[in-house]
């Protein structure tokens, strides 16, 4: 058997001696006649050879083809370089960074896209059909066209003008509806598209916007609250997003301060008046460049939320006041609300006590607008921030606080305010509050003394219905702190009932008794003798 196999192998080796000799001859022929050199592509051909589509060696000032044809040879054109232009990726990175800085929620939407399996497949190219259509839409975009033109040395096409080049068949197959369906099929972060029921950015009663020459942040053409999350993101032709304008305080700033400290601060003392005034003085005439991520943005968010509350009150008392603008710098309540909301950072941002105050004041606006669900969201955000910042334990500070209560004097006020609004709105909605009476017992009430307790109360002129009652201007003590403490005591009982701490029927009787005890106030209570006499 072994001998037969060896013979068969030998036969196979010499089975075709003619072909073997032919291969040897071909190899010898190739060695004698080497293959011609590969054609080299020149970096730039002359204008005449490009027009005639002739071979050009690119020699300047006269190429060989033009010299042989006895014709002119020029290199005046600036042809586009083939392939990806130098700096293309860097330009895209800078454009994306600019988008993150100037288009709200754009980065959050992309991050949310990356955490979804379908979104990762779409952006990584694994979803071939979706990625292909999305890429074709990018190639059709005016921005892609202009980047290509700028990097190749040409001028970009003016905005609104369409290039005269015909579309490819692939482009014709991908219309705008296809591109929009690709994006709409991917879940978007809730922060970028709030639901219709949770109108966090613009309460219905203060949704008006002014078209004056005030420098303020650009707002979308349609309120975010009016956008349904079930609708696809249809493409909209709009001008480029301008750089963030500088904020200027409204022309009726001092009137709004008077309204707020007369009718809101007297029972909701979370603001430090001298700090608010100090921040307002930091705004120059040409405006201030400030954003939610800027250091100290909490103080500015507090300022604008104070103005939002006061502007709603002023507009309700004097509806014609918004049209009485001397210099065109008066903002409507909706404008001020949106500015205050834009100064509160996202969940991943750096927060300060001013952001907690701003959330509470914006919740008051929503309560007044009867959008309790939106107020509930804002209060929950503020309450959790209060715990993160350590407001629940002023003498063992956490987060950004360093020192005792004297160094953050409004910490206790803000924490108790979170408890008050959380209890009120939760009871109204029939939900269990996040904060408990035990939190109030741990922190304690505020000492009923000082300037805020005994400062005379003065209303605002021409502010109805206050202007109809001259007796309110007798400069009796405002009793701000004692009023606030009694509110906390009453709401502590409501909180107990809401969380089920008082069982029926004895719980209902105890509830009524405790309410009667607190409502029956003596001369040392919420209503002093001076105010009773008035």
Automatic annotation (TrEMBL):
Q: Which SUPFAM superfamilies does the UniProt entry name for this protein?
A: Zn2/Cys6 DNA-binding domain
* Molecular functions per Gene Ontology: DNA binding; DNA-binding transcription factor activity, RNA polymerase II-specific; zinc ion binding
Q: Which UniProt keywords apply?
A: Activator, DNA-binding, Metal-binding, Nucleus, Quinate metabolism, Transcription, Transcription regulation, Zinc
Looking at the record's lineage, which domain of life comes first? Eukaryota
What residue stretches are annotated with the Zn(2)-C6 fungal-type domain? 45-75
Q: Which Gene Ontology BP terms does the record give?
A: DNA-templated transcription; positive regulation of transcription by RNA polymerase II
Where found? Nucleus
Query: Which Gene3D superfamilies does this UniProt record tie to the protein?
Result: Zn(2)-C6 fungal-type DNA-binding domain
Q: Which residues cross the membrane?
A: none
- What is this protein's name? Quinic acid utilization activator
What organism is the protein native to? Lasiodiplodia theobromae
Q: What is the lineage of its organism?
A: Eukaryota, Fungi, Dikarya, Ascomycota, Pezizomycotina
Name of the coding gene: qutA_1
């Amino acid at each position: 058997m072994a001998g037969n196999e060896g013979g068969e192998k030998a036969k196979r080796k010499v089975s075709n001696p003619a072909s073997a000799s032919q291969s040897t001859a071909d190899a010898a022929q190739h060695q004698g006649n080497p293959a011609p050199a590969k054609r080299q592509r020149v970096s730039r051909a002359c204008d005449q050879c490009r027009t005639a589509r002739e071979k050009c060696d690119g020699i300047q000032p006269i190429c060989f083809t033009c010299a042989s044809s006895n014709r002119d040879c020029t290199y005046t054109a600036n042809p586009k370089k083939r392939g990806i232009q130098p700096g293309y990726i860097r330009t895209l990175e800078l454009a994306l960074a600019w988008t993150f800085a100037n288009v709200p929620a754009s980065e959050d939407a992309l991050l949310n896209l990356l955490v979804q399996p379908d979104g990762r497949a779409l952006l990584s190219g694994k979803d071939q059909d979706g990625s292909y259509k999305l890429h074709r839409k990018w190639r059709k975009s005016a921005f892609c066209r202009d980047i290509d033109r700028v990097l190749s040395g040409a001028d970009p096409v003016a905005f609104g003008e369409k290039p005269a080049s015909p579309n490819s068949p692939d482009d014709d197959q991908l219309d705008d509806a296809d591109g929009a369906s690709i994006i709409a099929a991917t879940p978007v972060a809730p922060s970028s598209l709030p639901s219709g029921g949770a109108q966090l950015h613009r309460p219905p009663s203060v949704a008006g916007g002014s078209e004056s020459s005030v420098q303020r942040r650009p707002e979308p053409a349609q309120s975010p609250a009016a956008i349904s999350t079930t609708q696809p993101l249809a493409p909209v032709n709009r001008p480029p997003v301008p750089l963030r304008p500088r904020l200027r305080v409204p022309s009726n700033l001092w009137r709004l301060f008077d309204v707020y400290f007369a009718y809101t601060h007297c029972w909701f003392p979370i603001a430090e008046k001298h700090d608010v005034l100090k921040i307002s003085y930091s705004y120059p005439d040409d405006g201030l460049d400030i954003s939610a991520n800027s250091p100290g943005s909490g103080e500015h968010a507090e300022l604008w939320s104070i103005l939002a509350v006061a502007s709603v009150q002023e507009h309700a008392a004097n509806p014609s006041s918004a049209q009485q603008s001397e210099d065109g710098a008066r903002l409507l309540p909706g404008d001020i609300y949106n500015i205050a909301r834009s100064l509160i950072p996202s969940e991943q941002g750096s927060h300060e006590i001013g952001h907690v105050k701003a959330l509470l004041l914006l919740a008051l606006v929503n309560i007044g607008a009867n959008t309790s669900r939106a107020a509930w969201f804002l209060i929950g955000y503020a309450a959790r921030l209060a715990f993160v910042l350590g407001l629940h334990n002023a003498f063992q500070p956490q987060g950004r606080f360093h020192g005792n209560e004297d160094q953050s004097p409004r910490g206790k006020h803000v924490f108790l305010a979170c408890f008050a609004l959380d209890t009120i709105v939760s009871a109204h909605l029939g939900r269990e509050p996040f904060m408990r009476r035990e939190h109030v017992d741990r922190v304690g009430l505020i000492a009923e003394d000082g300037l805020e307790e005994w400062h005379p109360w003065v209303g605002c002129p021409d502010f109805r219905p206050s202007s109809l009652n001259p007796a309110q201007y007798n400069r009796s003590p405002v009793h701000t702190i004692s009023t606030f403490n009694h509110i906390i005591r009453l709401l502590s009982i409501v909180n107990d009932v809401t969380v089920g701490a008082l069982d029926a029927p004895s719980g209902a009787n105890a509830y009524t008794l405790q309410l009667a005890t607190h409502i029956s106030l003596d001369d040392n209570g919420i209503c002093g003798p001076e105010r009773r006499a008035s």
